[in-house]
Every structure is written in structure tokens, then in C-alpha cells.
Amino acid sequence: MSCDANRLRQNTTPYQANFSAEIIGDRVTLHRKNKVAEEVLSGSVVNENLALSGMGYRFGQPNSGWMFKFTGFFTGNAKIYTANGEMTTKAGRTARVCNIVMIHTDVAPPPVKDDAGEAQAQTPPQPQMQPQAQAQPPAAK
After folding, report:
1. For the chain, which residues make up each domain, given as ranges?
2. Per-residue pLDDT tens digits for 56-83
């Protein structure tokens, strides 16, 4: 996710954030948590359209959170979804304009890091059975 500078505060900068994604059927959940804040978005993909909404908050100020609302679409032949939306205050004022890009890939994500930025130990993935190509007999000469 990429967001522009906060429109409601002075001297803020744009930012980018990576989320963990869980996709089950047409349901999508995005989550990120660091030392300062937590954000969660959820929604669905219907007819190649993506709709997400969610919230975030700072641990030190849980009552002054923010809201997200995104809509987007499937692009081209690749497994890429893009969505545009806003980060708003609880009162509905736009704080930031944001963009989310989700890319489906068979590449494993990087390891999850703890609060100190160190990779956490993870259980290695279990091997999955992949269909094997059948050997073809040599062509007759």
C-alpha cells in the first residue's frame, strides 16, 4: 500500500507499507503490525472487482484510529489487483489518498520479522505433490 502525505497534519510524508495477505475463496484479509500501529483490511473479489475496508490504530492512542475504504479491479492477464481508496478519520475526513497493489505469486513471502527486525523462526513448508510430466516415447523414424 502507498499513501500520500497526511492532509490533516503539517510536515508529514508519503509512506509505503507491506501487508500479509490471506485469500480464501473470494474473501481477502490484509494485516500489518509493527512497533507503533496495527492495520487490518478485509473484503472480497466479485466479478473481477476488489472491495476492501478496514481500520488501523496506534498502540499508544487506540481511541484515535483511522478507517480505510478501497475499490479496485483485476488488470490484464496477470494476477494483479489494484485498488484506490482513502484513509479517513473516524469523523470521515480524508487524511490520505492511498493505492493498494496485490500480486498473486507462487514465490514464498519473506520471513515475518519480530519487533527488533529479526526474522522469526518458522516451520518449514511441507512439500506438496506436483503433477509430473509423463515421458513421451521417442518419435518413430
Report:
1. 2-103
2. 999 999 888 999 999 988 665 567 888 8
